[in-house]
Every structure is written in structure tokens, then in C-alpha cells.
Amino acid sequence: MTNALITGANKGIGFAVAGQLGRSGVKVLVGARDAEKGDEAVKILRAQRIDAEAVEIDVTDPAGVRAAAARVREEHGHLDVLVNNAGVLPEVTAAERVTGPMDLEMFRTTFETNVFGTIAVTEAFLPLLRAAPAGRIVNVSSTMGSLADQTDPDSVYYGQVVPAYQTSKVALNAITVALSKALAETEIKVNSVCPGWVQTDLGGPENKAAAPMTPDQGAAVVTRMALIAGDGPTGGFFDQDGPVRW
Ligand code: NDP
Fold it and tell me: How many whole angstroms from 89 Cα to the centroid of ligand 1?
């Protein structure tokens, strides 16, 4: 049976992706840094007859990430799909701590999860993805990380300025490109996805109230890229409408 690990799957877009993948017959490994929240999410998914199990994983804890990979290897032997979804936007949720546009600590905090966390998880789980017949990696990025949109006055994203978050998603997109090239000779496909502006806790209560899309709507493109066929793209950036400019 196909299996998938989704980081940060106890709520928001990650939880919705877990539900969608589960409903399409995938065994979902529900990544959560808080074991209790992971168990709670699994309970809800199982009540919907989804084959789910919790995996405790804080993406900022490399030793813990390696231990999680060892457990998944022991229990499942391989991983078909990795969704690097865990992400933070502390420039908004901890705005009182922001000292200015070039706040080193804010960059470090944001990169720790959005960039280094993704690298740590991908490094640890890559051997399991190689052990699968056709591994898929989906990096949950954002059009906030599209330099083309950030520099286009006609883009709705032009006026948004959250430097640490935007830079972290640019870096994440660069990881997608580099990793897809490094894995070009394998069956593994790596893509970045923007879920759209979604009603989650990420940007704080005001953003949640203003966002037009539900977590299920945002998750749809993530799920689609997690399940792409062998003739699908790799090294690309997509949202619900198709390719996104880098
Ligand atoms: P939420 O805040 O609802 O969910 C974020 C998830 O990431 C939570 O499960 C959270 O866990 C988890 N997480 C945070 N830090 C860590 C960590 N160190 N280790 C493991 N898990 C962690 O936000 P979203 O669902 O909106 O965000 C999911 C992804 O979607 C992010 O990468 C975000 O950048 C991206 N995105 C979101 C958009 C939106 O409009 N919402 C738009 C574009 C992209 P916990 O519950 O413990 O905090």
C-alpha cells in the first residue's frame, strides 16, 4: 500500500492533505511535533475510516527527525510520498518581536522550520523514498516565495512584505529545483506547491478571517502533486491554476 508522511499534519493544510490522501487509499503517517495533537488528529482521521498513524516529528530537531525516519523504516521499509508542509510565519504571529525588515533572529527562527527543517526531514527520509518504486516529494511553498510575483506591481502579492518568510520560501523553491536535478536519474519527483491563501492559524486570526480558501481547498493541489503519475512534472512550482512563476 502507498504511504505518505505529512509534516505538521495535526491541523491546517497538512491535516486536510492527510484526509485527502487517506480517502484516496494512501496510508497516512501524520507528522506532529506534539505527540498528543498527533494522536488527536489520527483519532479524527480513523473515525473517517482512514488508515492513519501518528509520527512524532519536530522538524527543527535533527536527532528526533532521524529517529522518526528509523522508526518508519523499521515499520514500513519505505516511504512513497513526503509532504514537507510544516511551516511558520512568526513575522505576523509574533509581530511584537520584529525589530525591522532585516531582523536576524526572525530570519533564523523562520529558516529553522521552513528551510532547515525541510532539509533535515528530506535528508533523513530520502533513503526510504529511494526504497519506494516511485517516490514523490511535495514542498509546501507559497507565491510569497515567487520573485517574479514579488517584483511585479500587477501581482496581488506585490504589496506583501514579510522578508524572512518570503526569503524562506524562495530558498525552499531553490531546494526543489536543486533536489529534482540531483534525483533526475531516479523515479523520485520533487515539486513546490502554493496552496493559495487559506483559513489557517499561520498568519494569525485576522488572516484566518480574511483568507478565501478552506484548508480542504488549499490542500487539493498538494494532494494532486503528491499523487502525480510517472509522466508528471519534476522541479516545478504549481498552484491550483497550474505553473507558478519562480
Ligand atoms: P498552520 O499554522 O495551520 O499549520 C502549521 C503546521 O506546521 C502545524 O501542524 C504546526 O504544528 C506545524 N509546525 C510548525 N512548526 C513545526 C515544527 N518545528 N515541527 C513540526 N511541525 C511544525 O498553517 P498552514 O496549514 O497554513 O501551513 C502549512 C504550510 O502551508 C506552511 O508551510 C505554510 O507556509 C504554507 N502556506 C500556507 C498558506 C496559507 O494561506 N495558510 C499560504 C501559502 C503557504 P503545531 O500545531 O504544533 O504548531
Answer: 8
